[in-house]
Amino acid sequence: MSAAQHNPAAGAAVLAAADGTGLAPTADATPAASGPMALLTGRLRGGRRRPPRVAPSRSGRKTRRAGWLMVAPTIAHIGLWTLIPVLATFALSLTDYSVFDAPAWIGLANYVEIINDPAFRKATWNTIVYTFWTVPVSMAIAVVIAVMLNQKLRLQNWYRAAFFLPQVTATVAIAMVWLWMFNPQTGLINGILSVVGIPGQAWLVDPEWALWAVILVGVWQGIGMKMLIYIAALQNIDESLYEAASIDGASAVRKFFAITLPMLKPATFFVFVISIIGAFQVFDQVYVLTDGGPANATTMMTYEVYRAAFQDFRMGLACAQSVLLFAFLLVLTLISRRATRGDEE
After folding, report:
1. What is the mean pLDDT of the chain?
2. Is the pLDDT at 39 greater than 90, yes or no?
3. What is the mean pLDDT of residues 151-159?
């Protein structure tokens, strides 16, 4: 018979040592079993023992309060200028609100009207077509330019700034320049076409060409930001990968498709998402170039929101259109996120 069985204090010390805490059980504890069985049943019931909660010290509480005070302005800004307007948009979309009169509850009537509105259906289709062409085309051009400008070139920074300049230039100013270029009589584009014997077009007046003219402007303007993001991603690719490929005799094209593009997948996903959001929010160039015409050939979802809110003063209808636009962007973002999840993992 061991000493632990003769002496209860010694047994408690043995259990405390086996438990790893170094503390003997107190008189307040009422275990379901005694001796080694209490230790066994305690581990079976509770699994891993939770670490004891430690009350934050006075300095820790001060640090936590200081942290909340620092983020309080940001939280207040987001709540005041983002959360409250979003909730108000959802609420007003269910009302008949014309700014000058009090909102009147009409339920889903605004959404039914939008679904049956041929102008909004046309705007939705134009927005999809605009996004379908501007996003992939501008991304493809941007990645090629980024690869070229990532090489050691003379005046490299100047070239980068030149390609990025349209991104930081006012959209209205850019649209005015393109408005002159698309002019049927004195425009630069028709002038170049006449030199090579191709008849000019009424780019912004003909319904068949107006949307393509807006798409061209969108592609040109969107290259700069995408190029900059791709250049930043290219500079994070390990050069040893290209060196190993060169030793194996890989060509520049093979390196591009086997190394560069796969390593750019995270950046490509980011560029893709922000490009879709930007394309669905296109407004300025449409407003300046075509004013949604001719015959709604270039109207977009955002332009219909503007028309309902600030021309017809139907704020409830405009809010419902904004909710549908938000739903479009949310669904497209979730789909793209799910499509690229396997590549990221």
Report:
1. 84
2. no
3. 86
| Distance in angstroms (rounded) separating the CA atoms of residues 271 and 266 | 9
- For residue 227, with 0-12 CB atoms within 10 Å meaning exposed, 13-18 middle and 19 or more buried, which class applies? buried
Specify whether the CB–CB gap between 95 and 316 falls below 8 A.
yes
Q: How many residues does the chain have?
A: 345
Q: Are 325 and 302 in contact (CB under 8 A)?
A: yes
CA distance 100 to 122: 29
DSSP 181: H
pLDDT more than 90, % of the chain? 58
- Token look-up 């008949």 returns 96
| 105-119 pLDDT tens trace | 999 999 999 999 999
Residue 43 has pLDDT above 70, yes or no: no
The first and second tokens of residue 344, run together, are 């990221």
Residue in 312, 274, 338 with CA at minimum distance from that of residue 110 = 312
Which CA distances in Å does 131 have to 7, 211, 222?
A: 82, 12, 12
44: exposed, middle or buried (Cβ count in 10 Å: 0-12, 13-18, 19+): exposed
pLDDT of residue 204: 93
Burial class for 207, CB neighbours closer than 10 Å (0-12, 13-18, 19+): middle
CA 236 → CA 141, 182, 217, distances in Å?
20, 40, 31
Task: Give me the helices (H) in the chain, please.
Answer: 3-6, 8-19, 36-46, 58-78, 84-92, 109-115, 118-149, 156-168, 171-181, 188-195, 207-234, 239-247, 252-255, 261-263, 265-280, 284-289, 301-306, 315-339, 341-344
Give CA–CA dist 69/164, Å, rounded: 38
Residue that has been written with the tokens 């077009």 in this structure: 201
